[in-house]
C-alpha cells in the first residue's frame, strides 16, 4: 500500500489583504480614541465654564438677597448686563467686576446676565401680577421671585445658557423685617409677612399705636444633654405686628432672644476655636429701631479678644455659650459701650462658685473658670451677644376665677391685663432720651399701686392635694439706652409736625414706645416661688416644662393644712433672672451683687378658714424701708406684725378675734441715718482746723397718709418727735379681714439734721481733723 505525504511550504506569512484589513481596523480605533479625548477635553472645558458661571450667579443672588427685600427692584426684567472687554484687576475694582472676572476666568468672548424680579400675591395660592389693591392691602401675603439668567457662546460659536431662581420673603433677610406699613390706599408699602396672632394665653400685647402692637411670646426653657433634662436657658421672641385680622397678623418687626447660663474658661477660646469664631464682638445694642453690633468710633478690638475665653469642656450647655464666653466682657473705660453699663461696683471681674456655693472673684484671667449668663439676639441671621437685660419691675397679676374659686388658671384677668397695660405705658411714656437710665422706679410704682393687690387673699376652703391654684408673674424689661437710641428717641419726640413721628397732641407713649427696647415677659415658669410657711402651703418651683400657660407648673399652689401663708415670687434683675430659676441656685450673673438684686411680690393665702385669729396686712412706703409695725385690736395690745422678706407686714390676731372691728396701728423706726460729705471747721482742744468730713446725717419722717381699703385713718401726733424712738399711732374705725393698711411717709420739715462735733484732735497744720466724737441729738432721750 502507498502512503501520500503532505508537506508544508518552506515559508508562510500574512497576505497583503490581511495587512490592509488590520491597518484599517487599527486606524478606526485610533481615530475613535482621538475623537473621544477631544470630546472629553471639550466637555471638561465646558464644565469648568458652567461651574464658574454658576458660581457667579449664586454669588450675585446672595448679593441681591443681602440688599434687603425693598432693594429687589425693578419689577419685571432689568436691563441685561453684558461683558466683552472689562478688566478684572483687584487694584482698580468697579461695579461690573462680578461679571468681568467670570468672563475673563472662563476665557469667554462675551457673557450676558439678565435679572427678573416678580412679586407673587395670594393666600392659599399665589399669582402674579397683583390683584386689585394687592400691593397695598396688608392682609394679602406676598413674596418675591428672583430669576438670574446667563448666556454665552463657546469657541465653536455654540450658544449656552444657565438660570437660577430664588423665592424670597423678608423673614429670611434681617431681624428688622419691615417698617410699619402705610395705611391702605397709600403706595410704597413693605413686604407682607403673616403669622398667627401671637396673643395666646399668658401673652399680654401692648399697643404701640392704632396700627401696631408689641407682644412677647412666653419664654420656653431650652434643654440639652444626653438625658434631655438639663436646662441651659430660655427662648422668647418679641413681635411688632398689625392688629389681628381673621386670627392672623402682619409682622412688622421680629426680635429673637435667647438667655443662656454658661460655664466659661479663660483661654479656652482663641486658637482653640475655628477661625470664624475667634473674633470677639462688641455688644449688640438697641439703635432706636433695631439691634446692631456696636462699632466704636476708633477701630479697636472688643474687650473679649485679649482674654480668649470659651466654654469649659465637659459641660452640657448651650452652643451659644461659645459667643457668650467669648464676647461678654467689659472694660473699665467710662466711654466704651458696655454689656453691663449699669454695673455699679466699678469692676469688670468675673465670679465663680466655691465649694460652699458662694460667689468668689476670679483673678486668674489666663485659664481660670467662671460662670456667666448672657442674652443673645439674632441679627441678620447670626446670634450676637447683646447688652444685658435689666428688669425694671416684677409682680403678680390677678388670675382668673372659675366657678367662684379664685386663681384657678394662670391666665391674667381682663381687668389685670388692662391695668398692667396702662401701667407699662405710663412708665415708658416718661422716657425722653435724656438718659440711658430709667426715668423713675417702676418697681416702686407697681408696689404702691394697690389696684394690683387683687385678690387680697386667695381662700382655699379645704386642704387638698387636687385643688390647684395658679399664679402669673410678670416682668418688664427695658434696656439701658446707649447714645444712638437716645438720639433716635429725642428726634422722634421733637418731630411734632402733622406728618411727623410725634404730632402735637399725640400721647407720649405712642411717640416713645416704638423707639424703646422693652419686653413684658410671662416669668411664671422662671421665677423662684417659696412659701412663707411650708406647713400650710405646697408650692411648685422645680418643674419648668409646662407648655400650658393656663396651667403653669411654676407657682402652682395647694393648701396643705389650715392656716395662713404667703406665696412669694422673686426674680433676679439681670440676665440670670430670665434664664430659669435653676440659675438662681447655681449660676449668678455678671454682677457680684446679683444675688441681692431681686424683685419680689407675694400673694396671701388662707387654707381652711385661716389661722386661729383673723389677719390683715400693713404696707409702709417712704422712710427707711425697715419700719416696725404693731397693732392694738381686740385682746391684742401692741402686738408686732411680722414682715417676711420682700413682703408686707403681716398682722395675725389672737384666737377668736373677728374682723372687721376698730383698732390702731403703730409705726416706728421709719427714720434713717447716713453721712454727708461737708467742709467742717472745728475747735479741737486749743486748735482750730478745717477739713472735709463724712458728717452723720439724720433723716426724719412723718406719717402723711393712712388708709385701709380706701378709708382714711386718724393719724396721731408723733411721740418722741425727731428721735430714733419716734413712733406714730393711727386709729381706724374698721379694719377688715384680709385688709391692706397703707401708710405713707414723707420727710419732715427741718430734716435732715446734721451731727455736731463733741470732741476731736487735729494736726499742727490745722487741715486734718481726726478722732471725732459726734454729738447726735436724735439719739438723746
UniProtKB/TrEMBL annotation:
**What InterPro entries does this protein map onto?**
N_methyl_site
Q: TM segments?
A: 12-36
The UniProt keywords, alphabetically, are:
Membrane, Transmembrane, Transmembrane helix
Q: Name the Pfam families for this protein.
A: N_methyl
Protein name as catalogued: Prepilin-type N-terminal cleavage/methylation domain-containing protein
- Annotated source species: Noviluteimonas caseinilytica
